[in-house]
Design brief:
Order of helices and strands: HEHHEHEHEHEHEHEHEHE
Distance between the termini: 28 Å
CATH class of the largest domain: Alpha Beta
Number of helices: 10
Radius of gyration: 21 Å
Number of domains: 2
CATH superfamily of the largest domain: P-loop containing nucleotide triphosphate hydrolases
CATH architecture of the largest domain: 3-Layer(aba) Sandwich
Shape: globular
Strand order of the largest sheet: 5-6-4-7-8-3-9
Helix content: 25-40%
Largest sheet: 7 strands, parallel
Structural class: alpha/beta
Length: about 290
Amino acid sequence: PGRLKDHLERGTIKLDGIKILVIDEADRMFEMGFVKDVEDIIKKCNRKRQTMLFSATITEEVNHIAKKYMNNPVQISAESFVDPKKLIQVYYDTDAKKKFSLLVHLLKHEEAGLVMVFCNTRRNVNFVVNNLKGAGIPAHAIHGGFAQGKRNTVLEQFHSHTVTVLVCTDVAARGLDIPGVSHVYNYDIPGESKLYIHRVGRTARAGKNGRAINILTREQHQNFAAVLRDYDFDVKKEETPQIEQMEIKWTDRPRFGGSRSRQMGTSKFGSSKRFGSRRKKFVGPRYG
């Protein structure tokens, strides 16, 4: 909404001819502080219009907007696409230094279709993608720092199975309809329980089976305990496999020049059912 409001203030766009107004992801926008921006935009629209508001949760702010700017709105609730009986949720405990190595091990040994890996920050998304490529696993990133053109290209390649691993943030993944996601990995556990619901809801859709895999370090247990407290989930603890630390490189700015990196040990992987037996050494930052 910020960009649209900027255009309104500059006089480069007019909304008095709008006949249909759609407010999508309302709860997330309002959580991010855009309530006033949305109200300012609504006030510039034609009063004789149809208004549709979509929200995963009905918060106080959502109710406020609906009552103030909608005329006798009809509320429609849709059930979740996810079948709890089809969704298997597990978690692994690991040391922080072996967290990425465990992710690689699981990606190489789990029989999967499309995979989504969730991180809490853009920085972690960039780190995971660069090092997955270094480990010989084709992966793409998507987060709020991407231009729309690059975002579309990444999604097209993921839809077509050209790349089967998508590493993303919560904001970037909201609203995406991607069939065929068999596995969701929580590389980071979200700070809000409902974000966990949105993540795992990407799999086990349309009668298909799905797996949600949580990788927990000591620092992540508090967030995970909050999820289990807020929702009645059956999440099984899996035995953590014996793995060696991989050599990893931390890259702060994968899309631009310059980097800051650190290396942590080495690891060797044998043959892989999903990605072949080819091994690569990650000797520098990878971009793209």
